[in-house]
């Protein structure tokens, strides 16, 4: 093809752009599918974020050669490409959803044959495409991941909310017990009053008794001294009379 026609050049450019910008492409054989079948398949793939395109194998080979992309033996016989693009709402398509749509359609229509595909830089055979169809979709995996990350945060938030209440219960219990565990309990005010009064009354009762005993002994000593003086005086008087 020294001087390719402009329309062929445009197709090669289109294929090259689509293959270089997609995350995955699945190669299928569509021999035996009716126009109605193709419409149904395109509708199912569109909802998954894929588009179903039929190109001549020669043009696809030229586009992949420019991209240095080896497709192996997938470009044999009538081949159509299921290319992952965007969903109708503009969000990126999902290779898993495209593979699921192809697998579901093939179950009801044996004329659709999945020959293989390419995911990123890796070539996939038919078995790998079918295994990809059994993987959970990206949105479901992200939801599971978000749920797994949110669960510890939720538990932490509940714990933090419970801490003030538990601390209040703990402080209330300490107040009722009269202080922290291990600290000596304070004596009731009533007991202190009674103890002080008992001590005061005891001291009052004991002090007069000691004073009374001391007074009695002093009086006895004074009486004995006076008696001795009187006896001495009487003795002097008696001696004078005798003289």
Give a written overview of the molecule.
The chain has 243 residues and is an alpha+beta fold. The chain folds into 3 domains: 6-135, Ribosomal protein L10, N-terminal RNA-binding domain (Alpha-Beta Plaits, 2-Layer Sandwich); 137-186; 191-218. The protein contains 7 helices and 5 strands. It has helices at 6-21, 35-47, 57-66, 95-108, 126-133, 138-177, 189-242; strands spanning 24-29, 50-54, 79-84, 113-119, 122-124. A 5-stranded antiparallel beta sheet has the order 2-3-1-4-5. Helix 1 packs across helix 3 (57-66). The chain is elongated. Residues 188-218 and 223-243 have low confidence and may be disordered.
Short description:
This protein has 243 residues and is α+β, with helices and mostly antiparallel strands. Helix content is 64%, strand content 11%.
Chain-wise SSE layout:
Layout: H1 6-21, E1 24-29, H2 35-47, E2 50-54, H3 57-66, E3 79-84, H4 95-108, E4 113-119, E5 122-124, H5 126-133, H6 138-177, H7 189-242
Antiparallel strand pairs: 1-3, 1-4, 2-3, 4-5
Helix pairs in contact: 1-3, 4-5
Annotation keywords:
Alpha-Beta Plaits, 243 residues, disordered C terminus, alpha+beta, 3 domains
**Radius of gyration, CA atoms, in whole angstroms:** 56 Å
Query: How many extended strands?
Result: 5
Structural class: alpha+beta
Largest sheet: 5 strands, antiparallel
Separation of the first and last Cα atoms = 189 Å
Mean pLDDT: 74
The name CATH uses for the topology of the largest domain is Alpha-Beta Plaits
Number of domains: 3
What is the number of helices? 7
Query: Unreliable runs, pLDDT <50, ≥5 residues?
Result: 188-218, 223-243
CATH C-level label of the largest domain: Alpha Beta
Morphology call: elongated
Q: How large a portion of the residues is in β-strands, by DSSP E?
A: 5-15%
**CATH H level of the largest domain: which superfamily?**
Ribosomal protein L10, N-terminal RNA-binding domain
Q: Please give the CATH architecture of the largest domain.
A: 2-Layer Sandwich
Order of helices and strands: HEHEHEHEEHHH
Assign a percent range to the helix content. Answer: 55-70%
